[in-house]
Amino acid sequence: MKPFTKLTFLAVLILAVSQLVIAQETDSQNKPKVEFSGFFRFDYWLETYKNVEALDGLLALYPLAPMYDSDGNDINATPSLNGLAMGTRLRTNITMPKLFNAKSSIFVEADFTGMSSTVHFRFRHGYAKLAWDNGSELSVGLTWHPMFVTEVFPYVASLNTGAPFQSFNRSPQITFKQQLGSNVKVILSALTQSDYKSYGPEGATTKYLRNGIIPNLHGQVQLTFNPITAGAAIDFKSLMPRTFTISSINPNNSYTTSERINSLSGMVYLKLQTGLLTAKLKGMYGQNMADHLMLGGYAVATYNPVSGHETYVPFNHIFGQVNITYGKKYMPGIFAGYAKNLGANGDVYNNAAILYGRGLNVDYLYRVSPSFTYRNDRLAVVGEVEYTFASTGTNNMFDRGKVINSESSANARFLIMIQYDF
Asked: What average pLDDT does this structure show over 236-247?
């Protein structure tokens, strides 16, 4: 089925379902209420260097390592220009009748940023939520990973929303939130993977988490004392990269394995909202965070050539970011981020080819991104300069995979973004 045909079919289906819901023969106070919203978005940008990117450059993470031609010129130091409207989104929010004495709702959002250079209508968010008067809330479905923290994600024009310096991940999940008094909220989640996958011997796939049986587990405490919001979280992930191994001595021999790679990550954040000033800070210590569009992964720690059996060790990274904006109609802002590779959590097997993850040969990154927003009712026009610097080298397999012999590369991205909400 062609993309246009798929889009037409999906649009007709959404309209048909909404009309069916509205036409339910129930009491007026119990009728589901359907609301449509979204925005048109257009991004137009010029950049000076090739990047690790997705969606035809619409989502840029960090500059590639230098690559030299026969004359010593950097092949990646090539500027490019593009403009896309793929970030346009459509939302449906359905307020449902009470269920189990709780307010209930369904939220669905889609956009056009499919997972290839071709425009596709993509399922972005979709979850059902129950909210009780005692402050309890249960949601099931696909939405932002709790490490994203919707209350403090940075205001930037770029679609990367601060990645790879902060989490960018939407995952299927069961999330329970409990309000304790007026100032404290506890968040507990059990998550699986869909679009945002972990890396392993077969590339990026959800099977490593699925084979491990244990979901990605997350716990978070959030404090709100106006004008301050603060929080801390811990996140546990257990993958099973292989279910069997093959002997390198005798390739006809294979053996089952249940070896895991466990990783633990932590996060703290702070937001100050007073008048027209908004300041946000966030710091993370992350192990194996590649599924969040961040730097991270793991290495083979030991290898037995007779059985092919492997053990694993995660890489450690630290991430920090700050975002400050001031104003409403006219709003200057700045974002700054830093990421550092600390090496693996222990000794690694002496083979650099057995590293699984994203950007494990990157020693450190930083970004400085000033912006200016003009807002007129539902229309926003944002100009932004995003300067990202990368130090990339080789992994020293005799020193926990730490990066050595690094070289520098940098990209300056000049972006104009227009967004019209409805």
From this structure: 96
CA distances from 414 to 62, 91, 202, 397 (A): 14, 29, 36, 38
Counts of helices then strands in the chain (DSSP H, E): 2, 25
Q: How far is CA 112 from the centre of its chain?
A: 17
- Among 143, 266, 240, 128, smallest CA distance to 196 is for 143
Please report the pLDDT score of residue 116 as a whole number: 54
Structural Rg of the chain based on CA atoms? 23
Give backbone dihedrals phi and psi of 24, rounded to 5 degrees, phi first: -60, 140
Specify the long-range contacts of residues 109-113, CB closer than 8 Å, at least 24 apart.
109/38, 110/10, 111/86, 111/87, 112/85, 112/86, 112/87, 112/88, 113/55, 113/58, 113/59, 113/86, 113/87, 113/159
Neighbour tally for 350: CB within 10 Å: 10
Give the per-residue pLDDT at 21: 46
- The tens digit of pLDDT for each residue in 172-214 reads 999 999 999 999 999 999 999 999 999 999 999 999 999 999 9
Which two three-digit tokens encode residue 356?
């699984």
Q: How far is CA 329 from CA 373, 375, 381, 417, in A?
A: 8, 5, 10, 16
What span, in angstroms and rounded, lies between the C-alpha atoms of 166 and 364? 14
Q: Return the exposure string of 19-35: e unless at least 16 CB atoms fall within 10 Å of the residue's CB, then b.
A: eeeeeeeeeeeebbebe
- DSSP string across 76-100: T---EEEEE-TT-EEEEEEEEEEET
- Per-residue model confidence (pLDDT) at position 20: 47
Identity of the residue numbered 166 = Q
Q: How many CB atoms lie within 10 A of CB 329?
A: 10
pTM above 0.90, yes or no: no
pLDDT at 23 over 50: no
Determine which of 247-261, 286-300, 341-355 has the lowest per-residue pLDDT on average.
341-355
In this prediction, residue 117 carries a pLDDT of 55
Asked if 176 and 191 count as a contact pair (C-beta separation under 8 A), the reply is no
Distance in angstroms (rounded) separating the CA atoms of residues 364 and 378: 38
Q: Which two tokens stand for residue 413?
A: 């991205």
- Residue 57: which region, alpha, beta or left (left: phi > 0; alpha: psi -120 to 50)? left
What is the per-residue pLDDT for 57?
87
Tokens representing 80?
């490019």
Residue 243 has pLDDT above 90, yes or no: yes
The number of beta carbons lying within 10 Å of the beta carbon of residue 146 is: 26
